[in-house]
Amino acid sequence: MTVHLRPVKERDLPLLYRLTSEPDSTGDFQWYGWQDPHRLRRRWEEDGWLGEDGGILVIAHAEESVGMISWTKKVANRASHYWSMGLIVAPEFRGQGYGTQAQRQLARYLFDHTTVNRIEAATEIDNVAERRALEKAGFTREGVLRGGGFRAGEWRDGVLYSMIRSDLADEA
Predict the structure, then answer these.
(1) Pick the CATH number of 4-171 from 3.40.50.300, 3.40.50.150, 3.40.120.10, 3.40.630.30
(2) Residue-wise pLDDT tens digits, 28-72
(3) Which of 9, 113, 128, 18 has the alpha carbon at shortest distance from 60?
(4) Cα–Cα distance between 130 and 29 in angstroms, integer?
(5) CB of 101 within 8 A of CB of 37?
(6) What positions does the domain N-acetyltransferase occupy (predicted)?
């Protein structure tokens, strides 16, 4: 089972909406309420979801779109920045390793095509599947973010993971 990452196509917009806006598809840890149904299309028409400060790619297996992965530029200080990434895999494809492969591929891509030294990802502490996927992808757990995110009417603890450029060298 191999996945590849590719730019968002117009035909992917319904999947992106489903994964970010429909409670049955977002999963227990991604439902943040209803959103503007046109925002995804507006951004896609603007830049195809690929910009200097981040983007979205589709996670694909063969010709099937199985999810999405995103990254956002975060300022570390006046002289540097890092990337924060996240993903959502469609419910029917979860638990099959697509997320792990996508996270590893995006990290390699970002290290190969940008000068950043750090990529981070966070998830809710109870999202055991995502924590395992990040660890399998080569991310290191850094710590707990107490009360770090608000979802479903309450503040929830998160877990922060990171990968730095030299981690890939250790892998080779």
Answers:
(1) 3.40.630.30
(2) 777 667 788 888 899 999 999 999 999 999 999 998 999 999 999
(3) 9
(4) 10
(5) no
(6) 3-166
